[in-house]
Fold this protein.
Amino acid sequence: MTDAQMGARPAAAPASAPLLEVSGLQKHFPVRKGVFQRKVGSVKAVDGLDFTVGRGETLSLVGESGCGKTTAGRSILRLIEPTGGRAIYRPDGGAEIDLFSLGTEEMRRTRRDLQIIFQDPYASLNPRITVGNSIGEALRVHGLASGAALRERVAELLTKVGLRPDVANRFPHEFSGGQRQRVGIARALALEPKLIVCDEAVSALDVSIQAQVINLLKDLQDELGVSYVFIAHDLSVVRYISDRVAVMYLGRIVEMGPVEDVFERPRHPYTQALLSAIPRADPAERGERIHLSGDVPSPINPPKGCHFHTRCRVAQAGLCDVRYPEALPMGPEGHSAACHLAEADS
């Protein structure tokens, strides 16, 4: 099979190159009406994302519900097929692979390196089979283990995520929410992936269990060198686990940079509003609460110009409502913001 058929370039990727490089990612869902189901529009759930994920790095995607975070994560793995764009994956010492050009069988093999942890740990597990079989299924499908070797690998994975090996014969309903999420993590780790998409992996858990699962994810990253695309609403969790953060609004990234720089010096008005909503225990640390006016516009017909200008308190007529801003550098370390009025460090 040729490199073109495999979606790979012949040149080897340099060691310093990012593990994953996404450019122009789009996912538009058609809107159909009438007896003949004619297409009358599109829901632009993701509308041109550009980002990279380094080896052993955690990139978080944050934003309001409906901004396209989950759609972006699932499109990368082709759990839903993207409308456009490229996703260049670089295995260690291997050629560059465009995930979106791979055929079904090639993508199936490549998914050994690309896994996902779903938001609902109960819905993502088959209630009719034991958790041991759920964890071992991928190993069987890819022909990596069977029999005693498979049982030994499942026991090893359960131990790694803090569960006893003897729970492999239990069914999902016999576990608590936190334990089920640990099973989901063990399943994601079964094939020793290089990248895991964590889709709201802790949002359904109690706060104390959230802390345990997040610390587990960090420990596994330190041990295995796995990279994460971490999708979340909780900004406190994002600040703790992330290396970089990308803020999404209506299908686009409006600000991206190192997590501490974005949290301490947000440039985009939308990022500033999100961060102002973080609860703070110390009254002395509470700043101005920025209230956004109106509702999120429809992704079927987003506003012209900057998509955020209809809710922005600093928007300027004739500028923000006419032209969409480019993402411009806002300082060192790769911090950028797509805002006409954002100011970089002097």
Observations:
- Confidence is low (pLDDT under 50) at residues 1-12.
